[in-house]
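wait is this the right file?? whatever heres the structure
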């Protein structure tokens, strides 16, 4: 016996397509819960990476400044700044740079690194620092100052 045309057109439960509103809400709730758990730790890691990057850059600049001092019997002046690590300052004959292979970058928060020579914290050498995410003296976490001397910036 052949099936009737009526039984062929009826949808079987397995042939149903799409999701009900309730199923959609359950999926959205699961995504929201996941985002609330993972999101904060992800953004904390971004902040930690920026602070770590600033520390590494300060160390690289300090090493380059040491090489500059060996060649030139002193550090660049405050006016010459970190750019003296890339281009010869004035009529300095003993300059053997560039002491950095790339241009001096901004800090991870988009501001220039602060360089003072002779330094306030280190009167015999230099002070090199960035004020962290907030751009203000002091702070903790990503807002903390990153300095070449390992302490906080004195106002």
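ok assuming it is, sequence goes like this
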């Amino acid at each position: 016996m052949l099936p009737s045309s009526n039984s062929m057109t009826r949808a079987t439960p397995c042939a149903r397509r799409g999701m009900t509103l309730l199923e959609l809400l359950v999926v959205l709730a699961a995504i929201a819960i996941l985002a609330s758990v993972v999101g904060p730790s992800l953004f904390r890691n971004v902040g930690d990476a920026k602070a770590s990057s600033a520390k590494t850059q300060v160390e690289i600049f300090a090493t380059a400044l040491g090489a500059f001092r060996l060649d030139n019997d002193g550090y660049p002046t405050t006016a010459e700044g970190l750019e003296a690590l890339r281009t010869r300052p004035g009529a300095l004959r003993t300059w053997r740079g560039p002491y950095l292979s790339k241009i001096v970058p901004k800090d991870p928060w988009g501001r220039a690194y602060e360089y003072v020579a002779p330094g306030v914290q280190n009167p015999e050498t230099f002070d090199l620092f960035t004020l962290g995410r907030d751009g203000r003296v002091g702070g903790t976490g990503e807002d903390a100052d990153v300095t070449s001397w390992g302490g906080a910036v004195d106002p």
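The beta strands are 114-116, 127-130, 146-147. so i think its the right one actually
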